[in-house]
Amino acid sequence: MARIAVLDDWQGIAEAAADWSAVRARAELVFFRDHLGGAEQVVAALQGFDAVVAMRERTRLSAEVIARLPDLKLLSFTGARNAAVDVAACTAQGVVVCNTTTRRTSHGTAELTLGLMLASLRHIAVGDVEMRAGRFQGQVPPGGEVAGRTLGLVGLGHIGSRVARYAQAMEMEVIAWSQNLTAERAASVGVTRVEKGELFARADVASVHLVLSERTRHVVGALEIGAMKPGALLINTSRGPHVDTDALLAALEQGRVRAAIDVYDQEPLPAEHPLRRAPGTVLTPHLGYVTADNMAELYRSSAENLVAWLAGRPVRVVNSV
């Protein structure tokens, strides 16, 4: 009987999120709740498994790891692409790689972006702490309204465009920049394209919505953060490496900017990481795509991938072996 590992079920929802009965009829399923760690820990945990279901990019499955998993025959990941999986190494080793798709990821991440903006500008988290401590308004600073302010979007794809529409509904001016964004594309969603320097100088709120690649790594660096208005808000619900964390930490410690962050260079974020203690921040644990609706779709598609593979007819295959 095949053995299948479902990785990084951090919230303990995978088993109930989909019907796995057709998989269990032909294979043993093992759900891993905790993050496995580095390469050595991943290799040790996955010995003897024929198939792995990876949740987005939570575990790095590098060429080194793949080469040390001789029993691996299928790697299915959630999402259309996964930068943490070395697909070429899988192909060279004869491992079938499948993906999944969902219609909901842009909704969840865009909605969280909106929530983080409001939570930061209106000091919602501070207010909650004060109420639970038996106090009232005394230690809660006055918040700011979003109407009439400028939102700068770094990236105007599916998610960025959805955030733009939310912001426009709240009477914000929206500007945008990315390396490939044209003025015509921006205008089609009622947004003005500007250069990157102008975006960070003008924006009251700057929000990142890009695919991570070598050219977008640290796309928000010391120069961009230094150009932000005093008290401006930086939101990142995209990928941690888009932002130079050291530069952001320095600006936060100086009280020059605020930040609302859902994604990090290292996940889970280490308990001792300085971001956890940085002033002027609202932090969430990579919740952008993690909604009950979205996770049900992702795991349902994952189960379909497994059933098809067990039947010898894999679907949603992204490589050629």
Per the CATH scheme, the topology name of the largest domain is Rossmann fold
CATH superfamily of the largest domain: NAD(P)-binding Rossmann-like Domain
CATH architecture tag of the largest domain: 3-Layer(aba) Sandwich
Task: Name the strands of the widest sheet in spatial order.
Answer: 8-7-6-9-10-11-12
Helical amount: 25-40%
Topology at a glance:
Layout: E1 2-6, H1 14-17, H2 21-24, E2 27-31, H3 39-46, E3 51-54, H4 63-67, E4 74-77, H5 87-92, E5 96-98, H6 105-121, H7 124-132, E6 150-154, H8 158-169, E7 173-177, H9 183-188, E8 192-193, H10 196-202, E9 205-208, H11 222-227, E10 233-236, H12 245-253, E11 258-261, E12 281-283, H13 292-310
Parallel strand pairs: 1-2, 1-3, 3-4, 4-5, 6-7, 6-9, 7-8, 9-10, 10-11, 11-12
Helix pairs in contact: 6-8
Describe the structure in your own words:
It is built from 13 helices and twelve strands. The chain is of the alpha/beta class and 321 residues long. It has two domains: 2-103 and 291-310, Rossmann fold (3-Layer(aba) Sandwich); 105-283, Rossmann fold, CATH 3.40.50.720. The strands form two sheets. Strands 8-7-6-9-10-11-12 form a seven-stranded parallel sheet, sandwiched between helices. The two termini are 23 Å apart.
